[in-house]
Amino acid sequence: MTALYAGSFDPITYGHLDILERATNLFEKVYVTIAVNTRKKSIFTPEEREELILECIKEKEWAHKVQVDQFTGLLVEQAKKLGVKTLVRGVRQISDFEYEFRMALMNRKLSPELDTIFLMPREELTFVSASLVKEVAYWKGDVQHFVPKNVAKALEAKREFL
């Protein structure tokens, strides 16, 4: 079985990686799909995000189960294109669940054969979000507890865009 784990991953955090690892324990293959939203301001290009993700997972024992790509448009269309029937979504708090629940119902309405599973990260990662990491990086705070070293270095290089 395969699954699709989509997000902006701008930047990828330890929370994202925790969810990805959990997904690889459940599925034979996991597509990590970088959602390219031209209406949203991103600090990293889709290609940079893809490179950062691949660098983060290259030495993981489950890396062979992951394929990283990009898409623009409706997630249900990407799932159809990839032949995926299950979406993976990370849920950190109740507020995440409310948003993700509505999204899952919309996706089900658009594509009834598509299911969504919700995975929770480790407890110590439940407060970590890409937007908070960018905020800490902007103010020159230490982000090493929230993102891998390659991502912290990339954030440092992009500080003027934060």
Look up the CATH topology. Answer: Rossmann fold
- Overall 3D shape: globular
Helix content: 40-55%
CATH architecture: 3-Layer(aba) Sandwich
Give start-end ranges of low-pLDDT stretches. Answer: none
Q: What's the number of domains?
A: 1
Taking all Cα atoms into account, the compactness measure Rg is 15 Å
- Determine the structural class based on helices, strands and strand pairing: alpha/beta
N-to-C span: 38 Å
The main sheet comes to: 5 strands, parallel
Output the CATH class name: Alpha Beta
Write down how many β-strands occur, each being a DSSP E stretch of 2 or more residues.
5
Q: Strand sequence of the main sheet, in spatial order?
A: 3-2-1-4-5
CATH evolutionary superfamily: HUPs
Brief summary:
By secondary structure, the protein is of the alpha/beta class. It is built from six helices and five strands; from the N terminus they run βαβαβαβαβαα. The protein has a five-stranded parallel beta sheet, sandwiched between helices.
Describe this structure as you would to a colleague:
The model has no long low-confidence stretch (mean pLDDT 94). The termini are far apart. The protein has a 5-stranded parallel beta sheet with strand order 3-2-1-4-5, sandwiched between helices. It is of the alpha/beta class and 162 residues long. It is built from 6 helices and 5 strands; from the N terminus they run βαβαβαβαβαα. The longest helix has 17 residues, at 94-110. The chain has a single domain, classed as Rossmann fold (3-Layer(aba) Sandwich). Strand 4, helix 4 and strand 5 (115-119) form a beta-alpha-beta unit.
